[in-house]
Design brief:
This protein is α/β, with parallel strands linked by helices. The strands form two sheets. Strands 1, 2, 3, 4, 5, 6, 7 and 8 form an eight-stranded mixed beta sheet that branches. Strands 9-10 form a two-stranded antiparallel sheet. Bound molecules: guanosine-5',3'-tetraphosphate (G4P). The site of guanosine-5',3'-tetraphosphate (G4P) has 17 residues, from helix 6. Keywords: Cytoplasm, GTP-binding, Nucleotide-binding.
Length: about 280
């Protein structure tokens, strides 16, 4: 799903978030495991002040596991509980309910001391577009689910998904706006397909992506497309076009098509598990 962001859109997202956040105890923030910082919006720290917090490194299946673990440590050092998940296939989802309890243990303890027992924790999923919020909610709800709210005689309002006796989840996620003012961040968001390709043309985007690959994962592109890599990323694109028979008008190389194919291979994990930013290089 692609979003075009403009100030009105952002204001609306922020207002919705402010309203919904009042209703909940726990913010479950999804980030993309391949770019855990670039796929965050730090405004959530302000919006989610005084709430329990949990960060999920989603799409962990597409990122390198050693870096997933390093990011979990990084967030832990900053005082957040963080875990890795694969919402699409359900990896890590089984433990989520106990992780939620863990993230809210101070609140549960506070309630207990005040004599409030069995009040369920209410949670909301938030994140920038395309990090997998709906997939996560559906996978989690599919495992648990009984929808609450909209009982006869009750005004139609928020829908809560009862995960178990102790946890209720708002069924609509909070959408955070991406931080595309920072060019490097915008670029990485474009790599993973979170913001429109039109921001850069596909060829330029693929060329930038190839530079990153040469820096962090030398050899992967050569192996995948069975080509010899050179330092010139536009030449590499030509060679991918050749190797994949991307041809237009009889015999001209269709470099645009090769660029789209390369980005698609990366986004769907066909280049392997790749992480594009690293906690020790911030
Ligand atoms: P959003 O609500 O945050 O905007 O994201 P959404 O759930 O729509 O997910 C965006 C894309 O990311 C979807 O792919 C979804 O399948 C994929 N996705 C979500 N979680 C994971 C995950 O943990 N691992 C992997 N590999 N992919 C994940 P899509 O291309 O839009 O659709 P489709 O390919 O599933 O049909």
């Amino acid at each position: 799903m692609h979003f075009q962001w403009y100030p009105g859109h952002m204001t609306k997202a922020r207002r919705m978030m402010q309203e919904n956040i009042k209703l909940i105890d726990l913010v479950i923030e999804l980030v993309d495991a391949r770019i855990p910082l670039s796929s965050r919006n730090p405004d959530i720290d302000e919006l989610g002040r005084q709430k329990s917090r949990l960060i999920l490194l989603n799409k962990a299946d597409l990122a390198e596991n050693k870096w997933n673990d390093a990011w979990i440590e990084y967030f832990k050092d900053k005082g957040y509980l963080a875990v890795k998940v694969n919402s699409k296939k359900g990896g890590g989802i089984k433990n989520i309910q106990s992780v939620i309890q863990e993230a809210c243990k101070e609140k549960i303890e506070r309630d207990r001391k005040r004599g409030i027992l069995n009040r369920p924790v209410r949670a909301m999923v938030v994140g920038i577009p395309n990090v997998g919020k709906s997939t996560f909610i559906n996978t989690l709800a599919g495992k648990a689910c009984a929808k609450t709210g909209n009982k006869p005689g009750v005004t139609k309002g928020k829908q809560w998904i009862r995960l178990n006796k102790g946890v209720e989840l708002l069924d609509t996620p909070g959408i955070l706006w991406p931080k595309f003012e920072d060019q490097q961040v915008g670029m990485k968001l474009a790599f993973i397909g979170s913001i429109k390709d039109e921001i850069l043309n596909t060829e330029e985007l693929a060329a930038e992506f190839l530079k990153l690959m040469q820096q962090h994962y030398p050899g992967i592109i050569a192996g995948k497309y069975n080509i010899e890599e050179t330092g010139d990323v536009y030449e590499v694109l030509n060679r991918i076009a050749e190797s994949r028979h991307c041809i237009v008008r009889g015999n001209e190389l269709d470099v645009e098509k090769a660029a789209a194919l390369l980005m698609d291979d990366f986004r769907s994990g066909r280049l392997g598990e790749l992480t594009l930013e690293y906690p020790d290089r911030i």
